[in-house]
Amino acid sequence: MRKDEQLDYEQMKQKALEQLRSGKSLYGKDGAFAPLLKSFLDSALEAELESHLDSEERLSGNRKNGKTSKEVRTSSGTITIDTPRDRSATFEPELIRKRETILAESLETKIIGMYGLGMSLRDISKHIKDMYDTDISHTTLSAITDKIIPEVKEWQSRPLEDLYTIVWLDAMHYKVKEDHRMISHAVYNIIGIDRHGYKTFLGMYVSQNEGANFWLSVLTDLQNRGVKDILIACIDNLNGFPAAINTVFPQTEIQTCVVHQIRNSLKYVASKDQKAFMADLKPVYKADTLEQAELRMDDLEAKWGKKYEKVIESWRNNWPKLTSYFRYDAPIRRLIYTTNTIEGFHRQVRKVTKTKGAFTSDMALLKLIYLAHNNISQKWTMPLSNWGVTAQKLAIWFPDRMVLDLN
């Protein structure tokens, strides 16, 4: 630094006090400490070049070759630095690399964090400008969020445990831009409870439509990643779904969501009859035993069978899959008779994705769901309530499959 460029520390001190009182950034544009930070970075880059220009480089004719200026965004604001150059262009600075415009990793972490909370790129850009006096383009923001793509892919292919006691499988639907059109894509999500009672998001997969054939490929992927057995699978009423599960995991017990069955039934019951019909239906799925449920089902058919033959027929046809939960006690029944566990997860994800009208690609969709899951799963730190008792009962119901670790 030349003599006429020496820092005026007294003036810097006064300016810093004023900016501290007003809450302004000390390092951003016009910040009191901005010249000090610039001086440090410029000196560090000069030292890197000096180290690069060793005797061997100088013998080859390599020398200093001026400087180039560029703006670098930091978590405290934007500063302008002067990067020294060499004649042979072999100098690769480490402190601030060529074409690097974001200095602080903490700023990238903040950007990815805001994106994971559902903020749009426009809102993130405005927030960064307000907080750090730094302008970041949408292209740069998109490039930053894309840095998690390798992490997403690695997570999607990570090994899984050999046994999951309960899994919930369900799909969400989103619009994705494809050939300048908005196409509805299904995201297949799976949440499982491991043998120790911990909730885990096992995977997410994208397809254009929800169907049993694609679910078969999803379940095969779980198997390839190490899953050997699933005790109970909780699903909606998708045709062919149970068969797809039992093709890959033949011993898995299927529980179809009772709430889905009720919703589908009420679509075909006249509005004037719905209240009375539900009053007669509730004793069926709220019964204490399977035998009681069968008796109440007979009563329901006797009263409503002629008027709503197809509705009663649907309950009869799906009865084995709808009533699996009667085998278990109340704590497990509450877990498996509906898909509420995964639907609750979906509601939390939609709070994050609701700001997106459509996604530019399947990966853009998966990227945001993955970040949302990271936030949601921070609460999944404890096993399910009273899991010790539940695990013992599962070990009795599923001998040789649910093995307790009592050592």
TrEMBL record:
Entry GO MF terms: DNA binding; transposase activity
Keyword DNA-binding: yes
Extent of Basic and acidic residues compositional bias: 51-60
Domain of life: Bacteria
Alphabetic keyword roster: DNA recombination, DNA-binding, Transposable element, Transposition
Region entry Disordered, spans: 51-84
InterPro entries: Transposase_mutator (IPR001207)
GO biological process: DNA transposition
Pfam short name (any one): Transposase_mut
The keyword DNA-binding is annotated on this UniProt entry: yes
NCBIfam families: transpos_IS256 (NF033543)
Function: Required for the transposition of the insertion element.
Family, similarity comment: Belongs to the transposase mutator family.
Protein's name according to its UniProt entry: Mutator family transposase
Organism of derivation: Pedobacter insulae
